[in-house]
Amino acid sequence: MRQSKNRKNLIKKLEIGKVYEPIEAIKLLKENSYVKFDESLEVAVNLKIDSNKTDQNVRGVLSLPKGTGKKIRVAVMAKGDKAKEASDAGADIVGDEDLAQQVTNGKINFDLLIATPDM
């Protein structure tokens, strides 16, 4: 398979067979990127555990520092002070009966809807 000029230059910069530290590897990836889109990176970790032994299972949740990249649009149905409070808190869409009408007609786009009890 023929390699592009960019790929050949990238291979020249790397030491074949060298084991890079994670921080160094990520730095190399960022410095030597030649594509015009946001690349992704996969990481495989070998923990050397026996999954048949219950005391060696790994469970947990990982929270990414900058999120997953998807912006969630929040709509809030509230009146008066609660509407101002929601707007100040960063809600994307704030309204009362007019917002309810738009939701009923399907003319509004949001991911999460929050309503106050008086609505």
From TrEMBL:
<dbReference type="InterPro" id="IPR028364">
    <property type="entry name" value="Ribosomal_uL1/biogenesis"/>
</dbReference>
<keyword id="KW-0689">Ribosomal protein</keyword>
<dbReference type="GO" id="GO:1990904">
    <property type="term" value="C:ribonucleoprotein complex"/>
</dbReference>
<dbReference type="Pfam" id="PF00687">
    <property type="entry name" value="Ribosomal_L1"/>
</dbReference>
<comment type="similarity">
    <text>Belongs to the universal ribosomal protein uL1 family.</text>
</comment>
<dbReference type="InterPro" id="IPR016095">
    <property type="entry name" value="Ribosomal_uL1_3-a/b-sand"/>
</dbReference>
<protein>
    <recommendedName>
        <fullName>50S ribosomal protein L1</fullName>
    </recommendedName>
</protein>
<dbReference type="InterPro" id="IPR023674">
    <property type="entry name" value="Ribosomal_uL1-like"/>
</dbReference>
<dbReference type="GO" id="GO:0005840">
    <property type="term" value="C:ribosome"/>
</dbReference>
<keyword id="KW-0687">Ribonucleoprotein</keyword>
